Amino acid sequence: MADPQTQAEALAEPARINGAAAEATLSGGELTWRPAGGGEGQERRLELESEVLGCRVEGRKLRVATFAAGGGGDGERPSALACGGGGKGGGGDGSRRRGEVVMEMESDDAAERWGDAIRDRLASLGPKRLFIIVNPYGGKRSGRSIFQNDVLPLIEAAGIFYTMQETKHRLHAQEIAHSLDLRKYDGIVCVSGDGVLVEVINGLLQREDWETAIKVPLGIIPAGTGNGMAQSLLHAAGEPFSISNAIFAIIRGHKRALDVTSVVQGKTRFFSVLMLTWGLVADVDIESEKYRWMGSARLEFYLLLRVINLRRYNGRVLFVPAPGYEEVGEPVEQIPSFEQNGVSNGSQEDKANDRNGERIGYPGPSIEEADLEWRSLSGPFVSVWLGNVPFASEDAMAAPKAEFSDGYLDAAIIRDCPRWDVLGLLFQMKDGAYVNSPYVEYFKVKAIRIEPGLRVGGSAKGGIIDSDGEVIARGDGPRGGEAEHLMAYGPPIQLSVDQGLATIFSPRSR
Length: 510
Fold this sequence. Notes:
This protein is of the alpha+beta class.
């Protein structure tokens, strides 16, 4: 089917643009103008899809709200053709800035005609109604101000209707997504860190209508501590990390499929879209909370402490390798049936989704264990990291080969490594180069089972298992954390991937 923008009738009329006489043309999704009468000056242009938020008519004046990269928001950027092909966005640091192009037409009717034409072209591009969930407590407690100062002006300029609700407590976003009337909205947007997005995913998959609910497009505007999903989406499209770029991606409405991982222990199940860690990284992330008064330096400080007193954990990792990784690890002749381990803490959310003994919502992907070729790696382990997207945070590319919808998790496992080499590896995580180290085993899996053991040299101490920034199991003792956390530390935890199950707003790739 042809692009409606290319089928729309072209317009060409004289106008005064930003005060100067010009010949204006609207055609093929671009607004272009050049000096009237062959005067001096270069052709200017705005691409509606990538540089225009919306427009409004005031008598003979048409005000076009722009949001262009490289300082081109006022329309005074020469066209890429006139500049010799410099590419869209104009250069600079790639961050977008608001601007305005004022077109004074020859009559009120002409202004209305041009305004309608621009609005019609923009109407086919993005969502019209959004439900926005704001977490006012996450990160630097900036969610509310980001919504008011950054999000609201842009979505209003784009003519998007919205309903906003703030979260009041943990799992509130999950409750909202579980009960929301999705027929009223074209998408759900989280102004938060990654945790609220994960809650929304879980709420949608606990619904009776989960099959349609999970296809509602989701958006993330970074307002948390890690912001790994937003960074992954922007980086994949060649966009700099910024709140404004994340907002504009949602306004324009481009989407991509997103893998969803089921994390299961016994009868307890939840869904993840970012990562799961066990060992060093989880220990640093969670245990450094007591040094939060140090600000961002707490992670570096506690990392140094943990490297000086490096912990290793006994255990085993079993996995179904992706094609091309069949030689990693050792073959497993017989794998114990996972469904029979029977260990579960049983959460209130889990019990609420049982009706007459039948589970409501998405049961997770089916893993026929007997038909799969499982392999294994045995500890001790320094760190086990499983990533669904490339970035764990703004400045940590933990899974550089991860793709959003390839149907696999990327595993990065450190077993035996000198302590000071561990420190060097983690400092190389910024660009993902650490995976090239001989101390790191990096591979892709369709399913993986973690059998966490106790700390080497500490008979009653286990570790921390952290998923998407939340502790799911903690081994403070032989059976530590069972009452406090979603899962128990010790019994197997299995992860399996459902390819492209969810849908997420994403910038258009350059």
